[in-house]
C-alpha cells in the first residue's frame, strides 16, 4: 500500500513540473514570411493584357507638332518596291518643309499606301493607314509657300484642294510638270536619282479609275479598305529622318504661269 502511495506521489510531482515548464500563453512559432517575388520572375509579364497603339499618339494632336525643321534634312523611305531618299531644303518652301519634318518625325507615313499613281504625271500618298490619324489631320491646314522651284521630275510637293489647304498629302512628280508652278504647288524636296528608279516602279494601273469618294473611304477606313479593294497598290513601310542633306544653291523663283487648275494634281 505504501509503495502504491509513493508511486502516485512521484507521478503527480512529475506532472506538476512539466506544466510549469511551459510558459502560459506561449504561441507556436509562425512560418517565416515568403520572400517577395523577384521582378519578372513570376506572374504576368510587364505590359501583358494591355494593347499598344500602332501609331504615335502624338499624331492625334496636330496643333502640338510645330517643330522647325533644319535648313536641310534627309528622309529615307522604305517601300514595297525598294528604298529611296528624299533631300529637303527648307529655304525652298519653309512652311511645307516644317510640316513634312513633323509628320516624318512622328512616323505619320509609316504603312501608308501610295494610293494614286498616274503614269507620266504624279505618284501621290499621304493619307494615314489609321483612320483616327487621318481624321485628326483633316482640318490641320497650313498656308501656302511662295513657289521658288519648278515641279521637276523627282520633286516633292504638297497636294492641295485650293489656296491654303495643304495638310498631309504629297505627290512626287514623275516628269517635269512646270505647268503646276503657276497654280501654287511649291516643291520642298527631291528624290535622289537612284531613288526615282524605285518610284517609277510604283503600281500605276489603277490610275484615276477610282470611285468619286475614294479618298474619303481611305480616310474613314484606312489601309484595310485599300488592302481589300485595291490590293496591288504599293505602300510605305517606313519614312524616317536619317540626317542632314548637302545644301544646294537655291534656284531662282519660278515665274508665275497662270493656267487653268489641273484637277489631277489635287486631292479628289
Layout of strands and helices, then pairs:
Blueprint: H1 2-21, E1 72-79, E2 82-89, H2 94-105, E3 116-118, E4 122-125, H3 131-137, E5 155-158, E6 170-173, E7 187-191, H4 195-199, H5 214-221, H6 223-229, E8 236-243
Antiparallel strand pairs: 1-2, 1-8, 2-7, 3-4, 4-6, 5-6, 5-7
Helix pairs in contact: 3-5
Number of DSSP helices?
Answer: 6
Task: Identify the CATH class of the domain at 72-244.
Answer: Mainly Beta
Low-confidence blocks of residues: 1-50, 246-268
Strand content: 15-25%
Shape: globular
Class by alpha and beta content: alpha+beta
Q: From the alpha-carbon coordinates, what is the Rg to the nearest angstrom?
A: 36 Å
Which percent bin holds the helix content? 10-25%
Major sheet, described briefly? 8 strands, antiparallel
Tell how many strands the DSSP assignment holds.
8
Structural description of this entry:
Helix 3 packs across helix 5. The longest helix is centred in the N-terminal third of the chain and has 20 residues, at 2-21. With 268 residues, the protein is of the alpha+beta class. The protein has an eight-stranded antiparallel beta sheet. 22% of the residues lie in helices and 16% in strands. It has six helices and eight strands; from the N terminus they run H-E-E-H-E-E-H-E-E-E-H-H-H-E. It has a domain at 72-244: Cyclophilin.
